[in-house]
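hey so u asked for the seq, here:
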Amino acid sequence: MAGFAERLIADRPDMEELQRRYVLLTLQENGWNQRRAAAVLHLDRRTIQRLIARYKLNGAREIEDKTEGRGGSAEKPLDSV
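ran it, structure tokens below
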């Protein structure tokens, strides 16, 4: 039981890291559609754009696209629903 508690504490992210992970997860779940991710998080689309820039999440998106073999451009339309 102590091993579990030690692992849990070892990966105890601060609030900034939790926010980064949650925004990234929400974007991934919504196919990087910023409008849908903003709606899920009850945020303005511009706020999502600021968070993407703040946490430099565009690079993570490009890496995912390449590793998942999607090919083509990493750009996705913002308004597709």
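The helical segments are 2-10, 15-29, 34-41, 45-54, 57-67. Residues 14-67 form a domain with the Arc Repressor Mutant, subunit A fold (CATH 1.10.10).
lmk if thats what u needed
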